[in-house]
Design goal:
Rossmann fold; six-stranded mixed beta sheet; 9 helices; 22 strands; about 30% helix; about 30% strand
């Protein structure tokens, strides 16, 4: 009799439990506005298994034990999903000119016996230089794989399934479009169980930077007289080398005198190196670049004119270095991500061209330093024989006063790349930068 009553109560409890599950789930989701999590489902199934055992209902325990076991297997699979998983990327060339292309190779490797039903990698792409557009394809063009994330940030996304000890390799074609430094990583890697109940995430990979240099024009590309812009410096080219001014080293060539051997550089590189000397009478020119495009900072910045000034500086610097000038660089911009206002002293070192291009690639507008103070500071720093080539998209009344001052006049030439007609400044040589013949033609 007692057993029959217990059986009736068990069946009644089972009926109430089956009715309570959908009602409880509905009340839970209606109150908290989201479905139960996997852990909460597992707790519910565990309670059902315990209730079936307590009420002597083995069928109930078996029915709910099966999904509970599945949940346990899924949890174990997710726990070790990211173990021995790696994400790597390599780039054929980290330094490009606009129009150049390179291959970016992505490799995802699963070094364990556990297969992965799915893995997703989001590799963020960042750039900090001020731009007129946020469309990455107009700045650094990828052949595919780029998506906009929920935070409105561009990312290189890869999704795949990997078997035991399997690797996925994908190659993306990257084309440089505009000057700047573009960094990838570190990447957010997500994987888990086959059902997606227990996703796991980790940060993998280090930073990879792709530097795009400014567009560099040859004399045939733009209507710009390079020789006239440098003025009297052409008459002061080097006649002999000064052995006290070491500019660097290069590879040994047949016929080089032995007294020029650079033994420290030879030991460092493992190849014979000879010394390079700066000429004692090399013409020195300091390129001073003004990134202000309006008379007042609060008027904003004309990015197209600012880029024209940077491109003119890059073109003149490389031309001057190729013609044996000692070239320096200064601007009133800052390096992206810092408050640094860098300065490169004049040098004819073979590495000076790379240093100039690197600095120009990282420049961004700041408005913190006036071009007038920049010119005065360089006039005080430079030796009496050095000249200043002032590259600017705007000439204000304040600049006219400084350019004609006793300390500056006679040492400066102006390269103007503004939108409007340049004002005439008596006694100051001025050269205008014309538009490029072919906007996509560059010298690299």
């Amino acid at each position: 009799m007692h057993f029959g009553l217990l059986q009736i109560l068990s069946q009644l409890a089972l009926l109430l439990f089956l009715l309570f599950v959908p009602i409880g789930a509905f009340l839970y989701t209606d109150r908290f506005r989201h479905p139960p999590s996997a852990a909460e489902f597992a707790t519910l199934f565990g309670a059902a298994v315990f209730a079936g055992a307590f009420l002597f209902l083995p069928a109930l325990s078996i029915v709910f034990a099966m999904p509970l076991v599945a949940f346990l297997i899924a949890w174990l699979t997710a726990r070790y999903a990211l173990t021995a998983l790696s994400y790597e990327r390599t780039c054929d060339s980290h330094r490009l000119f606009p129009g150049d292309e390179t291959d970016l190779v992505v490799r995802i490797t699963n070094r364990k016996i556990l297969p992965l039903a799915w893995v997703a990698v989001a590799d963020p792409i960042r750039y900090s230089v001020i731009r007129t557009t946020r469309d990455l394809q107009q700045l650094l063009r990828f052949s595919g794989g780029v998506h906009i994330q929920e935070n409105l940030q561009n990312a290189l996304v890869n999704r795949a399934a990997l078997g035991p000890f399997q690797a996925l390799v994908r190659t993306f074609r990257v084309q440089a479009m505009q000057r700047g430094v573009y960094s990838l990583g570190p990447a957010n890697v997500t994987s888990g169980d086959p059902f997606g109940l227990f996703p796991r995430s980790a940060i993998m990979g280090d930073h990879l930077a792709i530097t795009v240099y400014p567009r560099v024009y040859s004399p045939d590309d733009i209507d710009f007289p390079f020789r006239e812009a440098l003025g009297n410096l052409l008459a002061r080219k080097a006649l002999h080398e000064d052995p006290t001014l070491i500019a660097g080293s290069r590879e040994y060539r047949y016929g080089d005198p032995l007294n020029r051997m650079h033994w420290k550089a030879t030991a460092r590189t493992g190849e014979l190196q000879v010394r390079l000397f700066d000429p004692s009478t090399t013409g020195q020119v300091m390129l001073v670049v003004n990134l202000n495009t309006f008379q007042h900072v609060w008027q904003g910045v004309d990015l197209e004119r600012m880029e024209s000034a940077i491109e003119a500086a890059a073109s003149i610097a490389l031309w001057a270095l190729e013609h044996d000038f000692s070239v320096g660089l200064r601007s009133n911009g800052i390096i992206v991500g810092t408050d640094l206002n860098p300065r490169l002293a004049p040098s004819a070192n073979p590495r000076q061209a790379t240093a100039v291009l690197e600095q120009l690639a990282r420049l961004s507008f700041s408005g913190q330093v006036t071009p007038e103070s920049l010119l005065l500071d360089e006039a005080n720093r430079l030796s009496a024989g050095a000249s200043i080539l002032f590259i600017t998209p705007v000439i204000t009344p304040e600049l006219s006063v400084i350019l004609t001052s006793r300390k500056i006049k006679g040492r400066v030439s102006v390269v103007y790349c503004g939108r409007h007609a340049a004002p005439l400044i008596r006694g100051i040589p001025m050269t205008l930068v014309g538009p490029p013949a072919e906007a996509l033609r560059a010298v690299s």
